[in-house]
Amino acid sequence: MRLRIPRNQADAILGAMRAIALEHGTDGVTELDRGTISGAATIVLGLEPIDPETLAPVAPEALARELSSAEEARQAVRMLAVMSLADGVVDAAKIGLVREYARALDVSEDY
């Protein structure tokens, strides 16, 4: 399923995904993290291939300012939840950051 959202919103979601990957510093970004971000860009958001290393991290409040509907916010939180688990490790800090995004986006679904 491709989301049909403006490029600035897609970039903000991808930047938030990068922020989650960076939660433990640049050494914590795995090849799987990079692949997850790249896959989300092309498969979910319908963009041309991107280099995840070029994305600027986007804070929760900045992501909330970019998204214009509750459905976009829910989709973003779903993508961020997947990102937090992409490397197969349950990481409390990454999950905590997803919760910060969910609060900023006023999303209360339990993923």
SSE topology:
Elements: H1 7-21, H2 31-44, H3 60-66, H4 70-85, H5 92-104
Helix pairs in contact: 1-2, 1-3, 1-4, 3-5, 4-5
Kindly summarize this structure in a few lines.
Helices cover 59% and strands 0% of the residues. It has 111 residues and is mostly helical.
Keywords:
59% helix; 111 residues; single chain
Order of helices and strands: HHHHH
Unreliable stretches covering 5 or more consecutive residues: none
Distance between the termini: 18 Å
The biggest sheet amounts to: none
In terms of quaternary structure, what is this? single chain
The DSSP helix count reads 5
Radius of gyration, Cα only, in angstroms? 12 Å
Task: Give the rounded overall mean pLDDT.
Answer: 91
Given helix and strand content, the structural type is mainly alpha
Q: Care to count the β-strands?
A: 0
Helix content: 55-70%
Q: What is the 3D shape?
A: globular
How much strand content do the residues show? under 5%
